[in-house]
Amino acid sequence: MTSRLNEEISSDSEPESPAVEKKARVQEDEEIEETAQEKKLRLAKLYLEQLKEEEEEKAEVEDFEKDLIAGRLQEDVLEQRGKLQRFVAKDYQPPDIADIRLLRGHQLPITCLVISPDDKQVFSAAKDCSIIKWDVESGKKLHTIPGGRKGTEDRHVGHTAHILCMAISSDGKYLATGDRNKLIMIWEAAPCKHLYTFTGHRDAVSGLSFRKGTHQLYSASHDRSIKVWNVDENAYVETLFGHQDVITGLDSLSRERCVTTGGRDRTVRVWKIAEESQLVFNGHEGSIDCIQLINEEHMVTGADDGSIAVWSVGKKKPLVTVKQAHGCHGDGGLEQPYWISSVAALQNSDTVASGSNNSKVQLWKCGEGFRNLKPLFSIPLTGFVNSLKFSNSGNFLVAGVGQEHRLGRWWRIKEAKNGLYIIPLKKQNSEQDVTSGK
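Given the sequence above, the corresponding C-alpha cells read:
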C-alpha cells in the first residue's frame, strides 16, 4: 500500500511518457497544418456569430425606440385632434404656504405675465407700464424695461400706457406686449431688445397670442377687431371683425385659428383664419373676461357673473358651467358673485385654475370628456389675481396679483401686494395617465 502511494506521488514529478508527448505533438501539428481555407471559414463563422449577436441587440433597441416613437406619434395625433387628455389632476397636492414665493418689482398692479418655453424665466407687465424679466429659480430680476411718462412716446423705448397683454413665441425668440395706447411692441426676448412697433388698432390692445410653432401673431382689441401679423417679416396680414363689444381675451395653439371672448356681447368666438370664418358660442350671463385653450378642441372661460365654463369647439353651449365659482360678497339680499379675473389651463391635461379677488386661487379637475368640473383645492392669495399661468412642465403656477382689477379701478384691496406669486405644485408619485377625451 505504502509502495503504491509512493508510486502515485512520484509519478507527478516524473517526465511525461513518450505516448503523451507524441499526442501533444500531433495536436500542435494539426493546428499548424490548418489550411488558409479552413482558417477563413473559422473566422467567417466567428464573424457571423458576432454579427448575429449585434443584430439581436440592435433589434431589441429598435423595438424599444419604435414603441417610444409610436407612443409619441399617438400623443401628437391626439394633440392635433384636440383629444389628448392627461389625467394628472389626481396627483396634485395643496402646496405648503411657506413654499409660495412673492416676487416684487412693479409699483402698480400686475396685469399680465408669460412663462418662457423652458420654464426658466417669467415676463410680467403692469399698470406702471414696465416689463420685468425674472429668473424663476432665484427669483431675481434679470432685466427691467421701465415705463415712460405720458407724452414721452417719441423718445421713450417702451410703453407709456397700461400694458394689458403679452405673449411669447413657442421657441422663446419673440415677446409681444400690447397697451392702452393701441400699440403692440415686439421684443427680442433674450436681451429684451425692442425690435418693432405695430400700429393699426383703433383702441386698447387687450389680447395677444403667437400661433404655436410659428411667428404668426394674433392680436385682439377694444376696437372689436382681431388682427393677424407676421413678426418675422415685420408685416401686417389681415383684420377680422365680428364681436359686438370690446374683446377682452384671446388665445391660440398650433392650428391656424384663435379663440376670443367678447366681453358684454357674451360670446366666445373661434376664428378660422384661413377660411376667414368664425364660430359663435353663447353661455355666460355676464361679461366674459378671460379665456384659455386646454387643447385644440376645448377651452375654459371666466366671466364677471362669477361663473367658469368649459367648452368644446364642436358644441355651441358650454359642456359644463360652475356658477359662483369663487363665492359671493355683500350683505344679505345684495350678494354679488366674485368676478372671475383670470383662468389658466395645463395644456392637454385635466387641470385648470381660476383667480378672482376672494383671496384664493382655485384649482379644478375636468372629468372625462370635459363634461364636469370639480374643485381640487384652493391656494390663499390676497388681491386681484389678474393673470394665471401654469408652467409647461406643470411643476408650478404663477399668479400676477394687484391691488386693483387689470381693466379698471372699481375696488382697491389695500392689504394686497402688487407682485408675482410662484406657487410650487406638489405631485404624488404616480405614472401619468394619457388617454383620449371623447
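Residues 36-81 form the longest helix (46 residues). Try to locate this feature in the C-alpha cell string yourself.
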